[in-house]
Design brief:
By secondary structure, the chain is an alpha/beta fold. The protein has helices at residues 3-11, 30-38, 55-65, 82-92, 110-118, 162-166, 179-192, 196-201, 208-219, 230-243, 259-263, and strands at 14-20, 42-48, 71-73, 98-103, 123-124, 136-141, 144-148.
Length: 267
Amino acid sequence: MGNDVASVINWCDLVIEVLDARDPLATRNVLVERMADRKGKLLILAVNKADLVPMSVLRMWKAYLSRDRPTVFLSVKKRLGTRILIRAIKANAPRLPVKVAVVGYPNVGKSSIINYLKERAAASVSPVPGWTRSTQVYRAKRWLIVADTPGVFSNADSKDDSLLVIRGLLNPDRAGDVVTPVVSFIKRVLSLNPGAFRDAYGVDAQDPLTILEWVARRRGFVLKGGGLNLTEAAKAVVRDWFNGKLIYYYPPPVGEHEESKETNPGG
């Protein structure tokens, strides 16, 4: 985790951690949460893409996550819950104007939330000395200053390859071996929501390679010799996860809150 994260959290009054409603545990970063706690900064969980998950499941996650942190469910794309997020920021701000750090893995919708907060008229303000150029600070409103620290989350807390896909850390256009992490991802999805690939692709198989072969056939990913191009099929699965075509969800864990599960979900 880059030094920018520590310095931004030290600078801010409030932290917003953006999660993906399809897999909240896998997109949490307990290291950042602990850092915020150590520095005495309140952290709000903003669970984005809530439109992709049934309301009954969202209610269970709301009860589960709210035990630890103020939690807001929203869909920036559908403009659902966005005003609730604004109210949560104001309600938890120790002072106004409030300095807010927005953190999260790629593909959880962090940029969309920042764009919503800062709106089109937001002006970039001078960076804090010592921060890299990738860290941007915006005066979003008269009472709100927002810092965005992109590209600072990694998969260092887990050896589970499936999280590379879930956390948006696998660029299908640049990656070498895409098939291995996507096979791990498919296994995780099947274990948590067995019907996800039937709903997305119309395939009822429970074997990852069979699912990739199905995707390759349906989309015409064929090699020159006539074999199926599983690499292109794996890339398609990653893109479908990114754009919301592939949806899986599951209820929160039952029983006591176990931090180890959040640090290394599924692995």
